[in-house]
């Protein structure tokens, strides 16, 4: 696709280049045994560089002419998805662009399991990711020859959808409004023959009043995007993503420092699209539905106000006590729609609260569920997937903090603990008692690490997919 949202690093090769280098993985535990069988030259190199086969460490062995001949790299056991990201990143730093243009690399897969080989290829590609939509891309990437018997379809599905997610989040808001989110959803749907319907205008005002209340403050029209894919006879899985394309905070306006990264406030939508892409690409047997309320929370003469009271799609009335707590308003209507058809499972993603970051930091999403057994399974799988989620309590006594003296609910209690109050608020809008998971994500890498470039970041995506694959199979 020509759309920059779907750009991925061009780092995989089907044929080796004239100068071909094997990359051998070593664990710290096995390093000493390996070293005993090596010639004196490598033992000297290991000693001089302090190589211990720790994750991210590499040594480049050169021939008599000084040309790179072999690469040894440290990895964890079992191999982590970011081990080979560190390797590729180190090679980009230690070899010139001219050298990288001539070399192809290949991972020595001896002793590696199938899933480790997949992780190695995904990690390598993620190290090569950079958001280049608005600058030249003159970088030379370390080209990796596909290792024999690699599950290429799985590698490509992860790389393509993770990069799509990051591109969506990184795209500046003047190029990523509600209309552009819809376009991305349509472009994702087309090759998979998914069906999309979009509600906006007067129909949105009537059917999804909370989405309209927030989004009508902007000249960029709000909408609700509804994607469906799969066999109607399969279990119903519904994904809901917060799609606030920019969040000024509304009339309760944010300070400028807090507004700086608010292009990422649609990362919930980006995660649901990427998760849908994985599900469709790898043909998980579910009847998939993706619901995205896409809005901009702007400041204008039509902005909703503190103290306004609205009637939601479910019929519950909400007193708006903070226009910067808009995400839970648009999600309330979306979750009602999602649960009306009685799905087997609902998962929502949202960059919802600062208190989730205070509690768990930037890298671990807060996870809430109305099914504790399911939540424990998801948390365990997230650890295995190296994409940790942490269950937080849906503590029902705290429901009192969402009470309003003039409506059924208020959208912001204004006291510490907002991550829990917001999850409890959302639970009110489910119809019936479907299994439900709420992920309060950050979706941003502040500093940059190998495989996790500064900017938009997938947090909870791989964990959610691993859980879905475990629950529904392939």
Descriptive account of the structure:
With 474 residues, this protein is α/β, with parallel strands linked by helices. It has 16 helices and 20 strands. The protein starts with 11 loop residues before the first strand and ends with a helix.
Tally of alpha and pi helices: 16
What's the architecture of the largest domain in CATH terms? 3-Layer(aba) Sandwich
Number of strands: 20
CATH H-level name of the largest domain... which superfamily? Zn peptidases
Instruction: Give the DSSP E fraction (strand runs of 2 or more residues).
Output: 15-25%
CATH topology (level 3) name of the largest domain:
Aminopeptidase
What global shape is seen? elongated
**Unreliable segments of 5+ consecutive residues:** none
Coarse structural class:
alpha/beta
CATH top level of the largest domain is: Alpha Beta
Number of domains in the coordinates?
A: 2
Terminal Cα span? 26 Å
Radius of gyration: 24 Å
**Largest sheet properties:** 9 strands, mixed
Q: Give the helix proportion (percent range).
A: 25-40%
- Roughly what is the average pLDDT, rounded to an integer? 96
Briefly say what this structure is:
With 474 residues, the protein is of the alpha/beta class.
């Amino acid at each position: 696709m020509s759309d920059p949202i779907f750009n991925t690093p061009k780092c995989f090769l089907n044929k080796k280049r004239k100068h071909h280098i094997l990359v051998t993985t070593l664990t710290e535990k096995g390093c000493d045994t390996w070293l005993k069988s090596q010639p004196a030259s490598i033992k000297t190199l290991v000693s001089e560089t302090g190589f211990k086969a720790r994750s991210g460490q590499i040594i480049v062995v050169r021939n008599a002419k000084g040309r790179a001949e072999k690469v040894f790299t440290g990895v964890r056991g079992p191999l982590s998805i970011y081990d080979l990201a560190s390797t590729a990143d180190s090679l980009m730093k230690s070899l010139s662009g001219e050298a990288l243009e001539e070399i192809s690399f290949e991972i020595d897969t001896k002793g590696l399991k199938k899933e480790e080989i997949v992780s190695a290829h995904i990690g390598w590609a993620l190290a090569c990711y950079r958001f280049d939509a608005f600058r030249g891309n003159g970088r030379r990437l370390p080209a990796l020859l596909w290792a024999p018997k690699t599950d290429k379809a799985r590698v490509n599905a992860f790389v393509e959808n993770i990069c799509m997610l990051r591109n969506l989040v990184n795209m500046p808001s003047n190029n990523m409004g509600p209309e552009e989110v819809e376009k991305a959803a349509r472009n994702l749907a087309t090759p998979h023959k998914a069906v999309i319907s979009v509600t906006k205008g007067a129909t949105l005002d009537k059917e999804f009043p909370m989405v309209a209340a927030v989004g009508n403050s902007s000249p960029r029209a709000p909408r609700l995007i509804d994607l469906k894919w799969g066999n109607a006879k399969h279990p119903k899985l519904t994904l809901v993503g917060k799609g606030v394309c920019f969040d000024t905070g509304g009339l309760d306006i944010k300070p400028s420092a807090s507004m700086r990264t608010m292009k990422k406030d649609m990362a919930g939508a980006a995660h649901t699209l990427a998760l849908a892409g994985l599900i469709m690409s790898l043909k998980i047997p579910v009847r998939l539905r993706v619901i995205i309320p896409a809005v901009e929370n702007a400041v204008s003469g039509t902005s909703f106000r503190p103290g306004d009271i609205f009637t939601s799609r479910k019929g519950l009335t909400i007193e708006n006590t903070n226009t910067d707590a808009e995400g839970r308003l648009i999600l309330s209507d979306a979750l009602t729609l999602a649960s009306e058809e009685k799905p087997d499972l609902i998962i929502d993603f949202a960059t919802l609260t600062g208190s989730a970051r205070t509690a768990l930091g930037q890298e671990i999403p807060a996870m809430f569920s109305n099914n504790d057994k399911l939540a424990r399974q998801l948390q365990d799988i997230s650890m295995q997937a190296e994409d940790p989620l942490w269950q937080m309590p849906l503590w029902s006594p705290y429901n009192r903090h969402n009470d309003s003296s003039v409506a059924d609910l208020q959208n912001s209690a204004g006291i510490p603990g907002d991550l829990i109050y917001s999850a409890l608020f959302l639970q009110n809008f489910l119809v019936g008692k479907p299994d439900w998971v709420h992920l309060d994500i950050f979706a941003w890498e502040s500093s940059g690490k190998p495989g996790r470039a500064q900017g938009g970041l997938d947090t909870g995506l791989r964990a959610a997919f691993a859980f879905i694959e475990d629950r529904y199979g392939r």
